[in-house]
Amino acid sequence: MARAAVPGRLGQRLRWRVSKLVERRAESGSASTLSFEVPGWPGHLAGQHVDVRLTAEDGYSTQRSYSIASAADGETVELTVQRVTDGEVSPYLVEELAGGDVIELRGPVGGYFVWRTERTEPVVLVAGGSGLVPLMAMIRARRAAGSRVPFRLLYSVRTPDDRLYRSELERGDPGLDVTYLYTRTAPEGFRRSPGRLGARDATEWGWPPELEPTVYICGPTAFVEHAADLFVELGHPAERILTERFGPTGS
Fold first, then answer.
1. Which Pfam family, an example, fits this chain (predicted)?
2. Cα dist. 56→11, 20, 61, 77, 112 in Å?
C-alpha cells in the first residue's frame, strides 16, 4: 500500500532513536532524573514529551510517555521518572538502567502544552507531584534564554520528602517565585496548614486575571481538573489555562 510522504521535520520526530544513559541523579526517594545522549536529536520545546520503548531479549516490547525535564541542549535529553509501585517500566528505569545502557526514544511530541522563550506575558505554573517535570523544563528554558518574564510556581506535594528539584528551585532565579503547598505533612512552623490547593493559594501566590497570565497546570487528572476549575472561577479565561494530565498507565 502506498503511504503519504511524511514532512522532513515531522519524520524526524517520529523516528525511534537509540539513546544512551550518561548520567543519573536522585531527585527524591522514588524519582530519578535520567540524562540521555540522543544522536540526531532535533531539539524540543519546554513542555513536550517523548515516547520511551524498551525491548527485552525475547522480543517483548513496551512503551510509555514521559515529559522532558530539560531545556533544549544539543543532543542531551533528560527525563525525570517517578517509580510507580507494581509498575512495569518506571521501576526498571529508576532502579536498574545503568550508565551506558541504551533505550529507544521517539519525539519530541506535543505542541499545545509548551512555553516559548519569545512569550512575554506573566506565567503561573501549577504542579501536582511529578507534574512538575514539564514545568521545570519551562523554568530551565527561561533561565537558559536569559528571559525576565515573571514566573510563579505553585507546587503541591504530599510531604517535604516528595519535592523534586529542591536545591535548584531554592537557589533563587530572578523573577521566579516558588510556593510549596503540602497536602499531608508540612514542615514544622510552615505558614500554611496541609491541604489541597485552594482559592486563597491561587489568589495570594498566583497572578491576578487582570495581568492576563498564561496558566500551565500539570499533575494527576483529579488535581488538574480541580486546579483548572479554580482558576476559571477566579476570573482567568479558559483559553489562557493550558493543562496536561496523567493517570495510571502501568508505568
1. FAD_binding_6
2. 26, 16, 6, 23, 33
